[in-house]
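thread: overnight batch results

M.L. [08:02]
morning all. the overnight job finished for the chain we discussed friday. pasting input first so we're all looking at the same thing
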Amino acid sequence: MIESPWIYLAALLLCAGLFPFLETRLPWRIFKVLPAVVLTYLLMTALSALGVWQHNQALADTRQTLLDAALPALMVLLLANCDIRAILRLGPRILAGFLCACLSIYAAIVAVFLLMRPLLPADAWQTLGSVSGGWIGGTANLVAVSQAINASPNALANALLIDSLCYSFWVLALFASVPLQAVANAKLRARPLAEDIAGSISDAGTSAIRPDMGALLLWLGGAVLLGQGARALAGAMPPTAMLGNASWTMLWATAIGLLISFTPLRRLPGSMPMASALLAVIVATIASQADFRGLSSAPLFLLTGLLVLLLHGMILLVCARLFRFDLALCGISSLACVGGVASTPLLAAAYAPVLVPVGVLLAMLGYVLGTGGGILLSALLQSIGP
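M.L. [08:03]
and the structure it wrote out:
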């Protein structure tokens, strides 16, 4: 049994790196269903349930210190590369489509929560609030929201399962819609987005320069320092029923990351690889205090997640009919929310290669909005209660 904080930290780092290491080297099918971050969570949960480490005060203090430093640093790193000016240049039609996708997800979560509330556990609002952060931004937003609202480890476990398994279903459905775009656009009376923006966006990707050790360490040190600055600013803010110290910290870290994105530092490579590594460590740390008992309600939560996505799709199609969004804009906007920057460019390329930059930029916009929106929706779900 592990009792030393340093050995515990070594175990965290080893487990956090295991599945990302294997995912890039082995073509296992499981990685197409459960991403590395979810497998890391399940592994750490299993080790915790088996008593591999002792749940003493020293390890609890180590865990809390690590999370206090890493979570705001993660938000800074995640948004430092975001090109807000390029996003705003996309035009009102594209931004309106993305806004409709976001609002339809929020509306669907509230509606399905009201429907399923009698069947779900009391902390279901924490699970769905966390999912809302992930389904507007990404897994990092999901984790940030869960910590900002002080979600239980079991609520986070269910949120991660919803995020990964329901996302897999939704990706399949969206890719299956690609051959239908001509017929769908005729019924929606929509002009194809690709015809409007061909050649108008030349570069929406991030730097392809491989970061060196110095850049990675500079990003890590700077992000931790700025994250602690966000924590200090949060301490000066008045706590409210909706926004406590943890919520203010995440919001300030988001604002600091966005400010960096307007500086030349945005072009310095290394922030996204460091953010991915830090996310794996954070997930492993949170999972190290959990167990499998809270996963008994996972099937109900998976059904809830699927209902949310189906209702989101229906609302988005109604918006498409009203505002004449074409199927490509609907699909890209939806996956930019639910899937993030890893999968959205692939779907965009399937619709039309010229749409790839649109997919990247909308997914980045989701990172900007996910944490704040998830915190606000969590407060709404808590207010309507069990």
